[in-house]
Write a structure and sequence with these properties.
9 strands, two-stranded antiparallel ribbon, alpha/beta, Rossmann fold, 2 domains, about 20% strand, seven-stranded mixed beta sheet, 11 helices, about 300 residues
Length: about 300
């Protein structure tokens, strides 16, 4: 039987933390409060199942609450973020996986023709997309490409946890020629959640602006599409005939990314897939048959 004192401490903690987070403008104060309380208690069990609390519970919760009040992202505080069936490791300075990105894996599985044995994840960040592929497609192999050393190290951990021995990391700048990446062609699919915010735009969410690395947000150029265009060019170069590119973009960039893929050439099917809120979110491009396998000349445009 649970000590009544434990129940009282939990009720007090939940009420106080929820109020403080609400006053700080946190969008989901009750949900975040419960997560912080569980973290302070050192448990993943439901709070009603707890029959004991650490002596330092209140002090630890206070520390966590202050961090969340300052709008430090919950995922960074907890050191983890859910992504499809996985719980990914998260660290400061690395782009935090977003729920909307999860749909890319569904699009890949629904629209691909043939096997998904070899998949490349460009601009991998924490490795979320590649890890999900390894988790959900047992025979797959994934190469995740990332320029930032901290993100690459974290992605390596998440890939290994999701599919031991089947994921690799390559540190590379997609705006340059990368012979080691070219050597992986042909592959069955390319996934990417590249940076795509235009240079003059400012993210509306303060947590994004303060805590996500700018390199992972701003895509280069006035339209934010310098890196996405490089992703498209690499997809043309890497994909086998019939292979699929699924690339996330901003909800206003559907026409621009389709036009970029059309100008790149080498694709016989271009479309825009919507997210669960009905907003344009993903470029879907199928590699055309009968085209040269090497599109390296497109990378210098």
């Amino acid at each position: 039987m649970r000590d009544p004192e434990v129940g009282e401490r939990l009720r007090s903690a939940l009420a106080g933390t929820t109020q403080r987070l609400g006053e700080a403008g946190v969008p989901s104060p009750s949900v975040d409060a419960r997560a912080l309380i569980a973290h302070a208690a050192g448990t993943e069990r439901h709070l009603v199942l707890l029959d004991a609390l650490p002596e330092a519970f209140e002090a630890r919760l206070e520390e966590l609450t202050v961090r969340r009040e300052s709008r430090e992202p919950l995922q960074i505080i907890l050191g983890r973020a859910p992504f499809r069936r996985l719980m990914l490791a998260v660290r400061p300075g690395v782009f935090i996986p977003r729920p909307e990105t999860e749909l890319a894996v569904d699009i890949l599985r629904e629209r691909s023709r043939g096997p998904l044995t070899d998949v490349i994840d460009l601009c991998a960040g924490s490795g979320a997309l590649g890890a999900a592929v390894l988790d959900e497609i047992p025979d797959s192999r994934v190469l995740s490409v990332e320029i930032d050393p901290a993100a690459a190290a974290l992605a390596a951990e998440n890939l290994e946890r999701a599919g031991a021995g089947r994921g690799r990391i390559l540190r590379a700048d997609l705006l340059q020629d990368v012979p080691e990446l070219s050597a992986h062609a042909p592959v069955d699919a390319v996934l990417s959640n590249p940076p795509y915010i235009p240079a003059g735009a400012v993210p509306r969410d303060a947590e994004v602006l303060r805590h996500d690395p700018h390199r992972a947000l701003f895509g280069g150029g006035d339209d934010g599409l310098e890196v996405p265009r490089a992703v498209i060019a690499w997809a043309r170069r890497l994909l086998r005939p019939g292979g699929l590119l699924v690339m996330e973009h901003a909800d206003v960039q559907g026409p621009s990314t389709r036009r970029a893929a059309d100008e790149c050439g080498g694709f016989d099917h271009l479309s825009t897939a919507r997210d669960l809120t009905g907003r344009d979110r993903f470029l879907v491009a199928r590699r055309a048959p009968g085209e040269p396998a090497d599109g390296s000349e497109r990378l210098s445009r």
